[in-house]
Amino acid sequence: MKKIVCLFLVGFMFQTVATAQKMAFKDGEKLTFTASYKMSGFMTQLAQVSMETSEVKTSKNTLLHFKSRATTYKKFDAFFKIRDMYESYVSKASLLPVLYRRDIQEGNYKKKMKYVYNQRSKTIKSTQTKRRGDGTDWIVNKNFSFSNQAMDVVSTLYNLRNLPIESARVGDTKTFKIIFDRKETPVTIKYVGKETVNAGNLGSKECYKLQVLTSGEFLKSGTLWLTADANKVPVQARFTIPIGSGMLQLTNASGLAN
Predict the structure, then answer these.
(1) Which range is the signal sequence, renumbered to this chain (predicted)?
(2) Phi and psi torsions of 50, nearest 5°
(3) What are the domain boundaries of the chain?
(4) Does the chain have fewer CB atoms within 10 Å around its N or its C terminus?
């Protein structure tokens, strides 16, 4: 069901490079959201979305692992069950992605996507796995090039949080590219100003308000709120898609860096 899939994706549609002096997140951070969609004129909570950060050490590098999950509430499972996972491994030094994985289970539809980045050559080795109706897998391997600083949907949001947004002026814009299904989609972020909104267990928080503009197929418009502090926690996202509108609302944040 496209409306529920888009509801999850929009929450991670933001990207740029890491330039802030102080990290806005750390190992052990966990954010939990409710995902709602407008049904019969009312916003209905359909699913829970979680975002977790952990540190992974390899023989050559230290990586940050960003894992995002979307799970429909049990009462909606019979209608359309979702168990989606998006994860990105990035260099702790540059926040550029090294590995990206997506595991989609939506009703009877199953799909996996894996990107292995080569930041030097700006190429990606991708593996796409889809489940056929007879239960067998259809695997497609494909290499493709990507633009400088283009990233997947998960690493983009974390990179955005690490920007010095406090230095932005109202009306400032910047255009980035997000890689999804082997295609790059341009996204323009516009700084609107500050606004106080509900931030779950953090209470009411003054936030940076960002407008999201894109010509992508599944998003008509969107707005994102990040706490106006050193953590820049995403607390709310509202969006309009071709078949309706929805939102993500933070309910709980723990393990914050600052």
Answers:
(1) 1-18
(2) -125, 150
(3) 2-254
(4) C
Shortest CA distance to 45 belongs to which of 16, 26, 73?
73
| C-beta of residue 64 within 8 angstroms of C-beta of residue 27 | yes
| Residue in 84, 56, 64, 63 with CA at minimum distance from that of residue 72 | 84
What is the number of residues in the chain?
A: 258
Residue with tokens 């090039």: 145
DSSP 103-164: EEEETTEEEEEEEEEETTTTEEEEEEEEE-TTS-EEEEEEEEE--TT-B-HHHHHHHHHTS-
| 188 or 14: which leads in pLDDT | 188
User: The pTM is what?
Assistant: 0.86
Residue whose token pair is 């496209």:
2
Residue 238, φ and ψ in degrees, nearest 5: -120, 140
Q: How far is CA 86 from the centre of its chain?
A: 8
* Residue 103 CA, distance from chain mean position: 14
Closest CA to 111 of 89, 84, 93, 87: 84
Closest by Cα among 91, 86, 90, 80 to 10: 86
